[in-house]
Amino acid sequence: DNVRQIEDILKKEEEQRQRNEYARRLRVEGEQLQRAGRIQEAIAKYRESLRYQPDAALEKHIRELELSMVRPTPTPQPTPTPRPPEVTASINLTGSWIGRCEGQSSQYSIEIRHNGNNFTARSEYDEYSGTITGNQIRGKSKTGDDIMGAIINNNQIKITIAYKNISYNPQKCDLQRMDNLQSPKPDKDRTESQRQTYYQVNFRKQFNHERMEGPWSYEGIPLLGYQGMPAPIVWLTKCKAPNNDGICYPMQFEWDVENFTASSLYLLTDLAWWGNNLQNKVIARLTVIGVGGQAKSFDIRAGIHTAEWSGGDIKDNPPLVKIVHPQNVKYSGRRFLNKFELGKMTVTKIKMELLELPTVGGNGVMEISAITLVQ
Q1: Which residue from 136, 162, 125 is spatially nearest to 147, judged by alpha carbons?
Q2: Torsions phi, psi of 13, nearest 5?
Q3: pLDDT single digits (tens) 289-321
Q4: Is 101 in contact with 228 (CB distance < 8 Å)?
């Protein structure tokens, strides 16, 4: 009888393991459908998964998806800039310009080359090209964003940018010729609040995923985007991801930092195609390198510092981890914000390494949305 009882227990445990594995696979399929924008099909997969493995967090995620379908967000359309008086034929836009966009305190530099009815432009964010008709300017960025606007005069252009790869409203920006602007005050003459207190790592300079996300801050700390403009995110995995996009993603990334003295670092991440695998285990390592070879490393644990974006088990425990729901992002879901103390360190490089990942049913992915240093 005891042997039979043990066999029955082992049989039930094996059946439950199989049910859990089947539920996980259904959930992975649901995540893939959601990322492809097929929300109704994703919900069906999620619900089927719940039949085999109850999950309160997944049920909440389903309700959020259903609510988003009831109140869909209209597709943003670029707002034409009012037509100013015609400019003279002597206009020449070639030169260095400074751009400022509505709702953003930061600014960016841009170089414009104007030749007849055509123009090209380059900023630290993107490259642009297009045509000029009268005082109207139209074109596209290298990443496919539409730009349109009006030349006010030889020293001012007003444009609107309609972003292709993000759910973010068209952004109105004002360009001023750099030679026409007053020189900024030296840093010593600025107040403490005017001095630079943040350093966002620029994923545009080194990234491996085309998904762009609009700017978003948490308690005044800029995280998503870069200096008020949209920016891509970074994926880490063991080459191929389950979305079958044909890209071989790396297991680690490094970013150079321009000798920024910081006391802390904010890291915004989440996991995809991960489930609750490797809970409490060290899955990644963040290393911050400073002048003179100084270095500090921080272990990232699944279920402690980051988790599956669509319902992985994790507890809100700031500053170790804060669960946030950013705005202006293409895919809804949770992100996980960590704060790491550096003391006082002049940073020259930041490195993130993915050490371990689930591989059953496809490689798990770590998504890095933001790295921001704070003075």
Answers
A1: 162
A2: -65, -40
A3: 999 889 999 999 999 999 998 888 999 998 899
A4: yes
List all residues 6 or more positions away from 228 whose beta carbon is below 8 Å from its beta carbon: 101, 103, 104, 105, 106, 108, 215, 222
Structure tokens given for 198: 């943040």
What type of residue sits at position 195?
R
Name the one residue in this structure whose structure tokens are 């003459």.
Answer: 189
Rg (CA), the chain: 24
* Residue 234: exposure state from Cβ atoms within 10 A (0-12, 13-18, ≥19): buried
Task: Write out the two tokens for 27.
Answer: 């959930």
CA dist., res. 219 & res. 201, Å (int) = 18
**Distance from C-alpha of 53 to C-alpha of 272, rounded to nearest angstrom:** 19
Residues 148 and 129: their CA atoms lie apart, in Å, by: 11
Measured distance CA(61)–CA(356) in Å, rounded: 26
Residue 11 CB coordination number (10 Å): 10
pLDDT in tens, 123-147: 766 788 999 988 899 999 887 788 9
* pTM higher than 0.70: no
| Calpha distance 54→57 (Å, rounded) | 9
What is the full DSSP assignment across 37-57? T-HHHHHHHHHHHHHHS--HH
- pLDDT tens for residues 25-36? 888 888 878 877
What gap in Å lies between CA 144 and CA 206, rounded to an integer? 18
